[in-house]
Amino acid sequence: MKKTLTLLLAFLMLFSLFGCGNDDGVAPTPPVLETPTPEPTPEEEPILTLSEYLELRKQENPGANEYLFAINAEVDGGAMAVFTEETAFTVTAAPAEGMLVDHWEVNGEAQPDSAASTFSITTDTTAIVEPIFREEKAVSVIGAEMRFLDAEGKPAGDPFTEFVFEEAYTQPVTQQNITDGTITVSVSAVIPEDHGLSHWLMNGAVYLADPAAESFIVENLDAPAVFEAVIVKEDETAEITVPAASAETAAETPLSAALEAAHETNEADEYIYGINCRIDRQALVAFSGQGKFMAAAVIPEGMTVDHWEVNGVVQPDSAKPTFELITEVTSIIKAVLRPELKLTAVNAQMQLVDDSFNPVGSYFTEFAFDEAYDVDGKEHAGKTVSVEVTAIVPEGKVLSYWRINDVPYYTDSPAGTFRAIGIDASTKFEPMFGDPAPEVTDPPFGVEVEETPEVTDPPFGIEVEETPEPTPAPTPAPTPAPTPAPTPTPTPEPTPEPTPTPVMWHVTCNFNCSVDGSRDLYVEDGTQIYVSGNDASYYYEWYVNGWALNDWDNGWKGVTLTITSDTLIQAYAIIN
């Protein structure tokens, strides 16, 4: 190698000495190099939307038949209508049971304020009209029962297992008119004798694997939900399984049947209409005879293909960015999009869970699971995920409850760590914390209780005594009217001192207790409050700013506190 480099360098030196002159020994003038002018790049034709293509086709073919195609809907008694001039149509949705219209789309474009079951359109060009459905807002339970809450936040009224809250309704316990499309209920497992709770499912996925959480409160639920209590015999453990994705099957729709029938008598071109996709970079393709077409989805950031539809028919196993169709009939191809599947933890961290439901790998706060991913060296196909979620509790704060997809869930003793198994939808986990407990050597409050427990040494010098019955004040004797004094010379009024701003303290209760029905309130310094357990049939173990006021064997139904600092009150039912 060194020899080759030496010879090459010698050749270059000789060439520079003797090879650069002319016959006269004069160095030649170097030629002028002209920079070639690049040929103009042809401008790409703009990609038109389907509506723009349909309008262009009408201009090129005036007087030709135009069509109104109705997907999952009906127009003029059928799935399509033929017209040659501007015409007004009313399209009626045909939802499946338990589904409602979320909005309407025209040529793949969402229409504002269009959640009604009918849609009116006036058009002089071909159009594709489709209602987009969503589940009816309803909450139901399996192996459990629900109750509404009274004004103090306690479960009350008759139990029920299903409730539809799509429309405004009257809450039967408080008689409050609910118009915001939400529901707040208590959910309690119905446990037969010699059985126990294993875990809870929400919409088929494990989200609360705590056998002690036999009941919880879900507050301001604004989406369809099914809660299931998984019950097992005592000393048995339920097998936790990840639900398999349901198989999709294609079926003929009224529109596909209508297009097939129209093909039998059609002697003109057929068309492929693309919604949320392009066929050969176009949204509309004309053809005759049998054709093979490849559609490519147009996917905005943060979205992915859920499946493909042809004439409103869901195509099985079609969660891919491209779709191939062989047809000789006019067809409408649609890429149905959805947000990417992603887990998010706020003020918490997550770990993946292996086949034995043990946490593995590093912690993370976001995780996308649309595609395949690795779990402890094994490949997972994606679309579902199982994780362990752990709250990151700030120093001096206390975990109060969890919010899942911004919906609060309250339990008697919220777990700082739990496992969510088989999640198949984007989910956000967020723990909520109470106020920090102040560092004190003596508690900044006085405590009186309605019952005197067996306590030999109350903590930190707290006086524990039975609350006495109030003694009515004596009626004062009448005072004789005073003799009027001579009118004194008026003196200037003294300037009143400014009224000091009262010191306010923040009081929070966990969900087992309240102050006149409130779990979060502010009171003036020195205010005396009575805190009661939510269920009058239970005795409770009480904690104030983390200090136990009584022992487990001697529960109290309530406590009277004098508030002189920010205070966190926790009550835990004693169940014998």
Task: Give an overview in words.
With 576 residues, the chain is mainly beta. The protein contains three helices and 47 strands. A nine-stranded mixed sheet has the order 11-10-15-18-36-35-38-28-31, with no helix packed on it. The chain has a five-stranded mixed sheet with strand order 3-1-8-5-6. The longest helix has 17 residues, at 2-18. It is elongated and about 90 Å long. The model is unreliable at 1-35, 245-250 and 440-470 (pLDDT under 50).
List the helices and strands and how they pair.
Elements: H1 2-18, H2 50-60, E1 66-70, E2 73-75, E3 80-83, E4 87-93, E5 99-106, E6 109-110, E7 118-123, E8 127-135, E9 138-142, E10 144-149, E11 155-160, E12 162-164, E13 169-170, E14 177-178, E15 183-189, E16 195-202, E17 205-208, E18 215-221, E19 225-233, H3 254-265, E20 270-275, E21 277-279, E22 284-287, E23 291-297, E24 303-310, E25 313-314, E26 322-327, E27 331-339, E28 342-345, E29 348-353, E30 359-364, E31 366-368, E32 373-375, E33 378-380, E34 385-391, E35 399-404, E36 407-411, E37 417-423, E38 427-433, E39 447-449, E40 504-509, E41 513-514, E42 520-524, E43 528-533, E44 539-544, E45 547-548, E46 558-562, E47 567-574
Parallel strand pairs: 1-8, 9-19, 20-27, 28-38, 40-47
Antiparallel strand pairs: 1-3, 2-4, 4-7, 5-6, 5-8, 9-12, 10-11, 10-15, 13-14, 15-18, 16-17, 16-19, 18-36, 20-22, 21-23, 23-26, 24-25, 24-27, 28-31, 29-30, 29-34, 32-33, 34-37, 35-36, 35-38, 39-46, 40-42, 41-43, 43-46, 44-45, 44-47
